[in-house]
Amino acid sequence: MKLMTKTLSLAGVALAMAAPALAEPVETEAVIVSVGEGQLNARTRAGPVTVVYSAGTAIKERDGLRRRDRDSKSFIPGLIINVEGDQQGQTITAEEITFKERDWRTAVATQAGTIEQFSELRDAIIDGQEYVIQREVTVYFASGSTSIAAEHQEELRAAAKEASSFGNYRVSILGFADQRGDPAANELLSQRRATAVSNFLRQTGSIEPGRVLSPSAMGEGTVAPGETAPTTDAQARRVVVRIVTPKTQLTR
After folding, report:
1. Residue 9 predicted with pLDDT over 80
2. Which of 73, 90, 190, 232 could form a disulfide with 177 if both were Cys (CB 3.0 to 4.6 A apart)?
């Protein structure tokens, strides 16, 4: 009888060891290490986890009290996320994944991101969100021209040489035109001016090409964030170059 009881007891232990652990509700903060199809390899304070998500997972971006719906395209390595769901072993089946807007922008700046993400980062810099201007150069143009004058070439070379000293920098390039003539033609001209400056900076050899954001056409009658509005047509025909870094980066 004792032998049978002992046998049953051992069988119970073996069965318990073989059975998978029950899923438990969890809410945890994690950093994305890599992104796969329908899952994230992430790291928490307790160690590595796999976060599984699906079409039913709520993905939210937080900006202060506001919450916006996002999709899985927002997931990039380096992003800090908050995960709510059920955990079984080292796998979390997510019901909701949230992240802060500023953390997303910092992760994009760090990882360089995709073309789409770069576009959103460029827009954020244009809007003046979460970035510090470390150096600014304004290049002025003759009427109808896209040629960069010699004195401005020297300014751009000096800025390009200094850029790497700012750490995790990006270069924003905004092109403008005066209000004379056709608005559509002026917007195209502002794009050509911005592109000319972008190409010049890349060719200096002092700036990593991947850190130069796509040049943007701002057209006529607009200003860059924090910029004093031009008072003459000569001042309006310009390209504003800004070397910027995330506010979350430690400064010198």
Report:
1. no
2. 190
Domain housing 163: 113-246
Count of structural domains within the chain? 2
Of 240, 235, 245, the residue nearest 225 (C-alpha): 240
Residues 81 and 204 in one domain: no
Provide the 8-state DSSP code for 195: H
Shared domain for 86 and 156, answered yes or no, is no
Residue 75 identity (one-letter amino acid): F
| 233-244 b/e (C-beta count within 10 Å ≥ 16 → b) | eeebbbbbbbbb
Gap between the Cα atoms of 106 and 192, Å rounded? 29
Encode pLDDT of 65-113 as tens digits: 888 999 998 898 778 999 999 999 999 999 999 999 888 877 665 554 4
Considering the domain architecture, whether residues 98 and 123 belong to the same structural domain is answered as no
- pLDDT of 141 over the 90 cut: yes
Whether residues 81 and 140 share a domain: the answer is no
- CATH number of the domain to which 187 belongs: 3.30.1330.60
* pTM of the entire predicted model: 0.52
- Over the stretch 188-226, which tens digit does the pLDDT of each residue have? 999 999 999 999 998 888 988 778 888 888 888 778 777
Angle of CA points 173, 179, 185, to nearest 5°: 70
Of 16 and 155, more confident: 155
Strands 24-36 and 170-177: unpaired
